[in-house]
Write the structure tokens for this entry.
Amino acid sequence: MSTGLATPLAERPNHVPSDLVVDFDFYNIPGSDEDIQSAYAAFQKSFPDIFWTPHNGGHWVATRAEDILVMQKDHQRFSYRHVTLPPMPEGTPPQIPLELDPPMHAHFRRPLVQALQPGAVAKLEQGVHDVCVQTIEALMPRGECEFVEEFAKVLPITVFLRMVNLPIEDKDFLLPIAEASVRGSDSQTRVKAMQDMGGYLYKWIEERRENPGDDLLSLVVNTQIRGERISVEEATSYAALILFGGLDTVAGMLSFFARFLATHDEHRQQIIANLDDEVFLKSAIEELIRRHGMANTARLVTHDFDYKGITFKAGDRLLPPNLLVGMDDRLNPDPATVDFARQGGIHAAFGNGPHACPGAILARRELRIFLREWLSRIPDFRIKPGSKPVLATGQVNGILKLDLVWP
């Protein structure tokens, strides 16, 4: 998403060699309107494993799995304290728990992980199934839909708003805020999104702190650390980040899945033939996730050190795109090809280490239910003739528009 506000190019720091400077703007990548992940991979194949770009405040970019996996896990050198690019204004409160490093991160993360464990997610499965089926069966007679608005944003958002016990009808207000947060290309847009979300949440947080229920929002805003309840400000940041994740990420992955299957008949038929094969379906979902990574969270270099011949300085910012792990040909042969028989396909779509996405179990469950219920009812679908999917890069890559038709 572009706001039309151009970010000035940063001046190359003295410790950055000129031959490591690359014209890379992750909000505007050549070819991303056709295939975001392959557009990223073109930089992976054509430029140094780690390079520096003057765009978005000036930052390093790691393109290979070996380095990205280190940067995901090593918070002592690569901190999560600032995960957005361009940088947020000085003094902006941290996004909790994402922009906290261990050990403090673990205190905030624990209640969220407990709420999203397999047993807890299993209790949500029937609700996910019911929303999925109702939505598909309402669309079926029409023979067409705009998938993003009419399905991808309906299923996970309905499920998520039920989890936090917020009004379903508020989704139309919340979705544009989430969109601005994850794909806004300037700090002003993202700050406003955070303020808007905080303003929306304030009354609910006050209510749940006074009269907590058994919903996820009540759980996180009453988190206790060392015997003391977190502050209202911390609760607001925590709740806002959960809503941003819950309102956007799974919707994006559903859209990537649907676009791929609409344009790859053979793969679609393979899944249809194996909808009752749990092992096959699990493997197919992981392969589709590997091929369609989405998240781009930055890191902050904590101190001066050398890494593989590159000098990093304290305060340097670095982008290790999760999707490039799955697209690394040193790790996954022929990575642009989706192969449901692939053995050991490695990806980092949900992160690694202490900050691995706590919602990954629920996301996989929703993706599985989508494939089973959609393909058993609408097995033959394609992109509407004359239309073109609208893709967007940013902190979270996604599809903004996807017109589908079926007999």
User: Anything to note?
Assistant: Confidence is low (pLDDT under 50) at residues 1-5. The chain has one domain: 18-388.
